[in-house]
Design a protein that fits this description.
Chain lengths: ~290, ~350, ~425
């Protein structure tokens, strides 16, 4: 039963990770930047949901309100800083977004306090197998919403004008520009969409896990990991590797002990990178 | 090094005299000065990877933390059972005699220099095969994982931390401890500087630069790039380990994620300082670290609570607007001062290419 | 090179000049002020508790100054505190302690928040023979090191939940119980764990789950699933506010049935407010509760302190604030009895401290810990949606009976 419990927990958690990772893949593919502040955008999104919860609105509405606000936060962030690091060395973007992450953490600390906070969804719990496996409905809800948004986004990317422009820019920014795509706007929109995805994930985290200004980085690393395993712009692969990561975490928790859980995630990152490096080096190539 | 110019000689001897006199001139600032020495060492060694080799590592903190734990463990383990020292958060008290303390820290520092270098050599082949940002993220992960794992190991104190041996009580002078650690770190600084300066005058640096500029071409030229990358990393690990060992003794209390594998602070600071001063130069990291440290110590307490916002903004401003650093800016402005004869047309062409 | 070198030398000498002019040391007592120093966590992971601590200090400073200040050798002095932000980082804390002592000339220190940071600062204050009264470093190992200048107004961490195990054994008819425990990987929580280990040995109880939680903990589903499978008599969780909130959230979601749930940091986490009825029956260790009957002339009773604190800072004081306020009362008392500003005289006066404050009796044991005050346990109890912390142990102050066992989730509305 423990195994069933762990697997279900892992998969539900993994779907949430996949949503964050999808945002990461999007901006990486389109703008060629790595955003260390990804996790902090998630947490900020969570705090938005928490704020509306404090106002007496059910926190589940956060999955609609939070992405809207976060879209503009992302847009603003792009105009302020990110537009200056697109087209430059990736390391510049890593460091610059690291700086942004620090600012975000500290500002969230000022605004919301360093206390751990939670929003209550009061969704209850689903019991399986005679009460021995429990699934919080909030987790099922969060997985469902994640899938819903991901599917909606894929359709939007395929059908809408902006979506096509984004995909064109990702394929070849220069060509897209020549053909009349306003790449500047596309970049801003992409970063905005990414932030909105983070907002949704954050709102879901506020009702399933806990929020704290300084827990962003593990989310960044997880999404980075999912992206390098799945590749850019491959949504099914992102979903699968997200769930894989969730499973890995839960089982690492059982087998190695909870104290090594975060350590195991980071070690897995190292191992995946090294594994891929050796695999590619046989062909005398390297990770690009 | 017989070709040191007279002016340089004056400069260096002046700096050394200043360094030696500093703990007496600014007695109250000894700890900050020790930090400064260690920060300069970290920035200079980071510069070997990030600046000269083009491998932007966040992983040097791994060696720093390793050195810290190793020095303390050896210092304790030589004379007392380590497990009992750290048991229950260090409840039992063992007292080092003066001789034991200094022997312990001596051997500890030796170990903390060698072991990280060996580890860098061992993992170097796997890790240094990654390039660019993959290398950066991988080393970031390595540093954080090390902290999390160290926090789970009982014998080095796990989550309760490791209290390093206190300075021998037989030495009554309250200033002795500060002086000891200052001179230790100053010696390390001089050692590192001499070594890095030696590298700057050697063929090794040219190879590292070749790797930075185009690794594939360097390889095609017949350079065994991997070998040099590993050696370069081992050199950094050697000095980072020593720096960590000294800091561990100075701070007196080692916590896995906040003191030893402190990627969030030290790990980022070393990158920032090198970039601030100008990476790929000898003096850049030194100046960067000095500026950064004075800025931090001077302004930090004035903006109580806001210092991290200031730090974040500083990082963004430096890397976005100032990626070449102070030395890079000066070099752009006065190339002839750097002994560079640059064809004006060529320079312009390069700027356009960028 | 020449130009650069010149620039660098100019820079260095400018800094040198600046430093020399800056090294004007402050006095320990300036005019009518007694200057205390404290490194406190205003940013970083401990910042909420750091602010509770700071508020506690400030509250007491204001009150003491307003009520006439400290009288030494017939002259009235006021307290003043120099604060630095230690960023919740032991390295920074140690450095700042050094700075307070060497550069700001502080001769008396107040403690930081958390055991880890106190562990980092204590060697520094000890080296310079600076008396430090601390209110938030509970780790037992602080008091076995033979520190002579460290005084803690609080009970050591290992005592936090020992009483809870005793209670459980008592309810079990004196027989040993099965304990499941999960503690965060930090100095304080691990010390609470040591207390439980001792209590288990003493009572013949058995520890069946012994998990450690990472510092970035936000999910302990794995531990709880194990708890569900093995059905212990007592579940003990400690991990600052984060641990308390995460535990309650997941226990209620996973419907983990345990007869007894013991925790720390419930009041700092505002458990009864954030989780409401879900947190009912949780048993919490605390250094202080406002309903206790201690009294002093500065704050009156605990209830009055709570009211004044509420008025000043807008929230109910957690025990972290109360104990910090008490630290100042101890200092005042020691200064007056020493009737001098000599550090060793003050230190000797501190050793002889025996007083009652609104926070509890204070008397320091040989290691510097407070031996005169027991820990208390309260239980979260709800009436409708209104939840409150009720003291249940020790019986002297109990305002409510200890409710045991916790009803199963299926029976709770």
């Amino acid at each position: 039963m423990l195994m069933v419990q762990a697997s279900l927990d892992g998969i539900l958690l993994g779907i949430l990770f996949a949503l964050i990772a999808y945002g990461m893949a999007l901006q990486w593919g389109v703008m060629n930047i790595i955003n260390i502040a990804q996790g902090d955008l998630v947490i900020l999104g969570g705090y938005i949901a928490y704020t509306i919860y404090l106002w007496g609105i059910h926190p589940a509405w956060g999955v609609i309100i939070s992405p809207i606000i976060m879209f503009f936060v992302g847009w603003g962030l792009y105009k302020l800083v990110i537009n200056k690091v697109v087209d430059r060395d990736l390391f510049i973007s890593i460091l610059a977004t690291f700086g942004i992450a620090i600012v975000f953490q500290q500002l969230m600390n000022f605004i919301f306090g360093a206390d751990v906070v939670v929003a209550q969804s009061e969704y209850g719990t689903t019991m399986l197998f005679d009460n021995s496996v429990t699934l919080p409905n909030s987790k099922i809800f969060s997985a469902f919403i994640s899938v819903l948004y991901a599917v909606a986004l894929v359709i939007y990317m395929k059908k809408s004008r902006l979506g096509r422009a984004i995909r064109a820019t990702a394929q070849n920014a220069r060509a897209a520009k020549i053909l009349g795509v306003d790449t500047e706007k596309v970049y801003a929109a992409t970063f905005g969409i990414n932030a909105a995805l983070c907002g949704i994930a954050g709102a879901l985290i506020s009702i399933t896990l806990t929020l704290h200004p300084y827990v962003g980085l593990p989310y960044t690393v997880r999404s980075f990991m999912i992206v390098i395993v799945a590749g850019l712009g491959n949504l099914p692969a992102v979903a699968v590797s997200g769930m894989g990561l969730g499973l890995f975490e839960e089982f690492a928790d059982y087998i190695l002990g909870t104290e090594f859980r975060i350590g195991a995630v980071f070690m897995l990152l190292v191992f995946i990178l090294v594994y891929r490096r050796f695999k590619l080096s046989k062909k005398r190539e390297y990770l690009k | 090094m017989g070709n040191i110019k007279q002016k340089d000689l004056i400069l260096y001897s002046g700096l050394i005299i200043l360094g030696l006199a500093a703990p007496y001139l600014f007695s109250a600032f000894k700890v900050q000065l020790t930090y400064l020495c260690v920060l300069i060492v970290l920035a200079m060694t980071w510069n070997l990877q990030g600046g000269e080799m083009g491998y932007n590592t966040f992983g040097n903190i791994l060696f720093y933390g390793l050195g810290m734990y190793l020095t303390a463990s050896v210092q304790v383990g030589m004379f007392f059972p380590l497990a009992e020292w750290t048991e229950s958060g260090g409840e039992k008290t063992f007292v080092h005699t003066t001789a034991q303390y200094f022997q312990g820290i001596g051997v500890g520092l030796l170990v903390s220099a060698i072991v990280p270098a060996v580890i860098a050599g061992a993992i170097g082949y796997a890790i240094l095969g990654l390039r660019g940002h993959y290398f950066a993220i991988c080393t970031l992960g390595l540093g954080i994982a090390a902290g999390e794992i160290a926090g789970g190991i009982e014998i080095i104190g796990a989550g309760q931390g490791f209290t390093t041996p206190p300075f021998p009580a037989e030495i009554v002078d309250t200033e002795a401890r500060g002086k000891f650690f200052y001179f230790l770190s100053f010696a390390l600084l001089i050692g590192t500087f001499v070594f890095v300066k030696y590298i700057y005058g050697s063929r090794f640096r040219l190879i590292l630069n070749a790797i930075r500029d185009n690794e594939d071409k360097a390889e095609a030229m017949g350079i065994q790039t991997m070998k040099y990358k590993i050696v370069g990393w081992m050199c950094s690990a050697f000095f980072c380990g020593l720096a960590g060992g000294i800091m561990g003794g100075l701070i007196g209390y080692i916590d896995s994620t906040d003191v030893a594998f402190d990627g969030r602070e030290m790990g980022v600071f070393m990158v920032l300082m090198a970039i601030l001063g100008g990476k790929g130069t000898l003096w850049g990291p030194v100046i960067g670290a000095t500026l950064f440290h004075f800025f931090k110590e001077g302004l930090w307490t004035l903006i109580l609570g806001w210092q991290y916002v200031a730090l974040g903004v500083l990082i963004v401003v430096i890397v976005v607007y100032f990626p070449e650093g102070l030395m890079g800016w000066l070099r752009e402005k006065y190339p002839e001062r750097f002994g560079e004869v640059i064809d004006e047309k060529d320079r312009k062409a390069q700027v356009e290419l960028k | 090179m020449n130009k650069i070198a010149k620039l660098f030398v100019t820079f260095i000498s400018a800094i040198t000049l600046a430093l020399v002019s800056f090294t004007s040391s402050f006095a320990k007592v300036e005019g009518e002020y007694i200057v205390l120093g404290s490194a406190i966590s205003l940013t970083g992971k401990y910042s909420s508790n750091g602010v509770h601590t700071q508020n506690g200090y400030n509250m007491a400073v204001d009150r003491i100054n307003k009520m006439g200040g400290v009288e030494v050798q017939g002259k009235k002095y006021k307290f003043e505190i120099i604060y630095y932000d230690d960023e919740s980082n032991p390295k920074r804390a140690a450095q700042l302690a050094e700075r307070l002592i060497k550069q700001d000339g502080v001769h008396y220190m107040l403690g930081p928040y958390s055991s880890g940071l106190t562990k980092a600062i204590a060697p520094v204050t000890e080296k310079y023979k600076i008396p430090m009264v601390e209110a938030n470093g509970a780790s037992r190992s602080l008091f076995t090191k033979g520190y002579k200048y460290l005084f803690a107004v609080l009970s050591p961490a290992n005592q936090y939940l020992e009483v809870a195990i005793d209670l459980a054994v008592e309810k079990n008819g004196g027989k040993g119980v099965k304990i499941a425990q999960a503690f965060e990987q930090d100095a304080f929580s691990q010390d609470v764990r040591l207390g439980i280990l001792d209590a288990a040995k003493r009572t013949g109880s058995e520890i069946i789950i012994d998990d450690k939680l990472p510092k970035e903990l936000n999910d302990m589903a794995a531990t709880l699933a194990k708890v569900k499978a093995v059905k212990p008599d007592v579940l003990v969780v400690s991990g600052h506010t984060k641990g308390a909130l995460t535990a309650i959230r997941q226990i209620s979601e996973m419907k983990v049935d345990v007869p007894m749930l013991a925790m720390t940091h419930c009041d700092a986490a505002k458990l009864s407010k954030q989780h409401g009825k879900k947190s009912e029956f949780a048993l919490c260790a605390s250094q202080w509760h406002k309903n206790l009957s201690y009294k002093d002339k500065f704050f009156g009773s605990g209830k009055k302190y709570a009211k004044d604190f509420q008025k000043e800072f807008g929230y109910d004081p957690p025990y972290q604030s109360a104990e910090s306020s008490a630290a100042l009362l101890v200092f005042k008392d020691a200064f007056e009895r020493a009737n001098s500003f000599d550090r060793d005289a003050v230190r000797d006066a501190l050793v002889d401290t025996e007083m009652q404050t609104f926070y509890g009796n204070i008397k320091f044991g040989p290691g510097g810990q407070n031996v005169a005050k027991p820990m208390i346990l309260f239980q979260v109890r709800c009436k409708g949606d209104d939840c409150e912390n009720r003291v249940v142990a020790p019986t002297k102050w109990a305002s409510d009976k200890f409710y045991h066992p916790i009803p199963k989730w299926s029976e709770r509305s």
